[in-house]
User: Fold this.
Amino acid sequence: MAQKVAIARTPGDRRITNRVNAELTALGFEVELVPEPPSTEPLSLRQIALEHGAVAGLRASPSKTGIELWIVNPNTGDTAYEEVVTVKSRNDELLALRSVEVLRARLLKLGVLSGEPPAPAAEESPPPEPISLVPPSHPPLPAVGVQLLSTDLGVSYTVEPSALSNYESARLGLTLAPRAEWSASAFAMLPLRASEVSESEGTARVNATLLALAGDVHLRRARLRASLGAGCALAFLGVSGEASPPYEAQSDRLLTAVPFLRVGGSAAVADRLALGLEFMAGFSAPASVVRLDLEEVAVWGRPLLSAAFTIQIGILAPEPESPAAAASAEVGRR
Assistant:
């Protein structure tokens, strides 16, 4: 007769409970789902298991990153094992598979079988070694911080080697990463302060808005990432001025391209949140010249040097490979 396992139901545990139920049923266990009564103090797994004639009791913890496990000693009726099975990151399928693996290993150690014993052979022979449900290594999960689609928000500071003053910009971007090793991105730099140059004739101000496309390659280690990339930006320059008498002020709009290289790094502080630092160097073409009284006083973006601090937020995470799929062949061998 199949051994019974009692699973204590808790609010919000439907997905992981169904997964554990399916794994246990496939192994030949009789599973009984036990709704927990609405009370401030939940019943112990020992009490639930013994009341329902089960050899073990399971319950998903409120955090859903752990499953409580209790197993009876078949010889004494006392507690044989009481533990919490956990995994390093949030993954319901991996947690369910891991808890069933631990339960089965504990029961085998106690000499409790999950189903009907095999028919005796004609000649007495030693029992076969148990076949592990799980392959030696689980399929790799995506590295922490790797997102298929993410956005970044931040601020950049641009250094002007010419007579123009340095200035700050808001940074907005969107990144697509089909693989962890490379990505493509689009971003905008919106001026928070104008760059300006002053002479006796007056003051000229430049508001620079950049729209850019870039590609990057990445080197990842745990939660850290280093990046190297290149791209090209279109710079929209709004030039205005204040003139001292008898000069007259003029306004103009300029468009120039800025091919660039960039290097950066980031650190993941959560599954969908990372902090990044990036340095960019570009060169505007054609030249955007600022003149006062027809005299050249500055050239914008030759070179363009900027540093940006960003907060990167994951929008869409890649689907992890199911560990149950990798173990299905082993299940079929039972």
About this structure: Residues 114-119, 138-143, 321-334 have pLDDT under 50 and may be disordered. The CA atoms of residues 219 and 284 lie 29 Å apart.
